[in-house]
């Protein structure tokens, strides 16, 4: 009789203890997610962040330290807008939604190494109006495609050159030499842009093997005095002095361009103390880091309204390559037949850039 009584007492006691332990454990787990309130009765939550589907982050808040709800709609693409309409995130306060960049066309969409292609679309300009792109191979490796031409400009066209070696990082503002290159070989590549860190849609470019190099029939000119070499068309005339080289009589390389009376000219100078323009951007050519900037050069009756400057330093000497790519203004100011010749400064500069891309130091 006594044994039955003890058994009937022990079983409920064990059950009660188990229930108390479980309830205590649940209470402890809930309280552990909270941080004790401070003297002002404000709950201080842990500094954790949750990634939302739109790319933004939210933190914990409220008495239970729950994550704030993710924003509805696309609010991740925000930039700072200054009162004067310029965009400069570090120094402005108002957040405005930034439209997504969209590439609507790429032309040409294929070509050999050294092909210059154009990307057209909307909202493609980035910081300070930069119009640059990114190239990605089948392994997911990316490289930077610096835009050709001065910025900012309003045409929203990105022009890039598919070089055989492309820097994996954008060193245009740092001025540092490239530390790692991506080798471009024949194949299909993805090209896109990411102004303000917002990625555009992807277009494809096919790099094909080149059977004929457009500069293969050029002649190589070497200057022992200036310590450099470069290739020029066979018909070009090269004149050299103690510290300067002038390249004249450069024919049209862009065959689609009509003979419009324009004039091409390149000068290379070696010296000291050549000032670098504040708007210059870095570009690496054949392992040489250049500061590239636009310029306007006038000489007598000739006006070069679209020039390009390439500046670098080698063995403690300053070198400056000047591309002069505009029409020769007649001395009487009157053009043949009273009409302004057909002129495309972009195509003109392409001709001269092919010479710059062969530039090398020999010492």
Structure description:
- By secondary structure, the chain is mainly β.
- Helix content is about 10%, strand content about 35%.
- The protein has two helices and 25 strands.
- The chain has helices at about 1-30, 345-355; strands at about 50, 55-60, 65, 80, 95, 100-105, 110, 115-120, 135, 140-145, 155-160, 165, 180-185, 185-190, 205, 220-225, 230, 235-240, 245-250, 265-270, 280-285, 290-300, 300-315, 315-325, 360.
- The strands form seven sheets. It has a seven-stranded antiparallel β-sheet, covered by helices on one side.
What order do the helices and strands come in, and which of them pair?
Blueprint: H1 2-32, E1 49-51, E2 57-61, E3 66-67, E4 78-81, E5 94-97, E6 102-107, E7 110-111, E8 116-122, E9 133-136, E10 142-145, E11 157-161, E12 165-167, E13 181-183, E14 187-192, E15 203-207, E16 219-223, E17 228-232, E18 237-240, E19 244-248, E20 265-271, E21 281-285, E22 288-299, E23 302-314, E24 317-324, H2 345-356, E25 360-361
Distance between the termini: 111 Å
Average predicted local confidence, pLDDT? 75
Low-confidence stretches: 73-95, 253-261, 297-305, 335-342
Biggest sheet character: 7 strands, antiparallel
What global shape is seen?
Answer: elongated
Strand order of the largest sheet: 18-19-20-24-23-22-21
Q: How many strand units? A: 25
Counting DSSP H or I runs of 4 or more residues, the number of helices is: 2
What amount of the residues lies in strands?
Answer: 35-45%
